[in-house]
Amino acid sequence: MRAVIGRVSVYGVLLIALVPVLFPVYYVFAGTFMAPRELATFPPQLVPTSLGLDSVRKVFDAVPLMRMYGNSVVMAGVITLAQLLTSALAAYAFVFLRFRFSAVVFALFLSTLMVPAEAIFIPNYLTISGWGLHNSYLGLVLPFFAYAFGTFLLRQSFKQFPTELRDAARVDGMGHLRFMWTVLLPLNKPALSAVGVYVFISSWNMYFWPLIMTRTTEMQTLQIGLNSLKNAESANPGLWLAGAALSVLPTLALVIFGQRFIVRGLTAGAVK
Amino acid sequence: MSWLCQRSALCHRKKYFPYQGVLLRELVTSPSVPKLQRVSTSTASGARTAAPDSAAPGADRPDRPPPRPPLRPPAHRGETFLAWVFLAPSVVVFALFLLYPLGRTVHLSLHGNDIIGRPSRFVGLSHFEEMFSAEFGSVLLTTALFTLGVVIPGVVGALAVVLLLESKIRAQRFFRTAFALPFAFSVASASVIFAVFYNPASGVLNGILHQLGLGPVQWLTSQETALLSICLTTVWMNLGYGVLVLAAGVGSIPREVNEAALLDGATGPRRAWHITVPLLGPQLFFLIVISTINALQGFGQIHILTQGGPVGSTTTLVYSIYQHAFAYGTSDFGRASAQALVLLLMVLLCTAIQFGVIERKVHYS
Fold first, then answer.
1. Angle formed at CA B144 by CA B226 and CA B181, multiple of 5 degrees
2. I need a labelling partner for A217 at 20 to 30 A (CA). Which of A80, A168, B7, B248 fits?
3. Range of the domain at A258
4. Residue from A221, A248, A204, A201 nearest A137 by CA
5. pLDDT at A263
6. Which chain B residues contact residue A230 at CB under 8 A?
7. Residues of A in contact with B4 (CB under 8 A)
8. Of A17-21, A182-186, B40-44, B333-337, which range is least confident?
9. pTM for the complete prediction?
10. Cβ B189–A226 below 8 Å, yes or no?
11. Nearest CA among B105, B125, B106, B123 for reference residue B114
């Protein structure tokens, strides 16, 4: 009897705790469908009376949302590809090439993780502006072309690569670059995708750098666009919610459907 | 993730230990590191490392062979050259956008500047001396309050959720994903949603207060509640991450430990408190440090919700840096850089504490 009560109370507590956690998730979509008058009632209305798409339509008039979506995709995509490339090359050097001070260099690589971007943004802002790249795609992505976390994770993955395969490739006269491109990288897809997903989500959600790096709404990323939307349509919270709902769809899909995929990415790397 | 340990020199060579902290910190950042526990226990007790991997069925590979001897004398000339070619892209980026900025921040902090931020005369440490003022004191106090108000509820909340999830319940995966959902929200989207909640005339929060017979609260525009509102938004936003990190930690607790506890009659809250929580130590500690570092860098929610106001009551260190650098219509890069160095120092201090504690845990736990 006591066990039953205990179990029921666990479910009860969990469900009660779920309400405040999930309510914002629910409300961003519910509010998107509500008419302005429904959002302005007090006490607030929690369920939309009709599935109106007015807010969604108006968002596209208020700010160049598609363009911002594109900017975010380009920024996050380019950063992800660039980081995968620089990390893979560096990790290859650390694992397969012998050179003096390899351990020291790797330690220095890791120590770069300790410096918060918010502490060094002024010189970076000056550098990028000095190159005439303020308010440009290159300015948005350049400082993030390398990140030691990717190098670290790929190094872990490369280290497990079977010696026999590497030796066989070498006996066959395969050079380093070809070996990396045709053998090593295809066999390390799980680690590469784990790094890729991680980098993509964090650059998709980036706020500080895109804020100071963009001047025109046409160059803003989605995250900065949400702030512009809030300022431009300060009387229309329905538009903010519609913008937020649209902006969160890709990452929401990744967390719901990709959670397992990310886990598999890392553990599959462990099996090889 | 046992392969990390077995293969990685990080666990076996003493000289690498200072970087173990980075290893842990960065690894847990990805929500899927079920074997993290092993990193901290493998050197401490060989028996536990040898325990079968119960949580990840795919991970039961044969034991790794011992490290292979080098095939050739180290530092082959051609390889050294090629290695630096491969490292060059990363090194160039780090040098340009990390190392050089560090030096230039120090330089800027020691100089005055004109109205568009160009450094002028050398002012020595006067930017730092100015920090002993009531104004900067309140910035530091706000930063501290914000950090505490985010880290404590965030970690306690995530721990409570994970412990409840860990008791044998159905639909565990559904609950875990549900609690992890806020992880998908960027700081901008979360802030925008909460801005709607905080609306004094039509927001949901005042609606609830109204139902309870309480008067409306000016969530974002009164000095008493603005910081609290920012904290609430941040706690919600961070909860998903905390749940993912701690759930990964729970997954790495060996099944035998729980079975032994069950045989000894430890169930429910007792098992949670005496078995799970102590074994979650490394993840909890990691979560506290990361949450602290993240809180010290929290910016978007303040920029969107309060712009540092009202009357500076939500101006944290990062926001103050931003304001000095850009928001006052002038670019006071000198003062902003000096404050940025304070921020850098705080984050480095957190990392150093993390290294120190984790190193001790690795050796003596």
1. 65
2. A80
3. 66-236+247-266
4. A221
5. 52
6. 192, 195, 304
7. 156
8. B40-44
9. 0.82
10. yes
11. B123
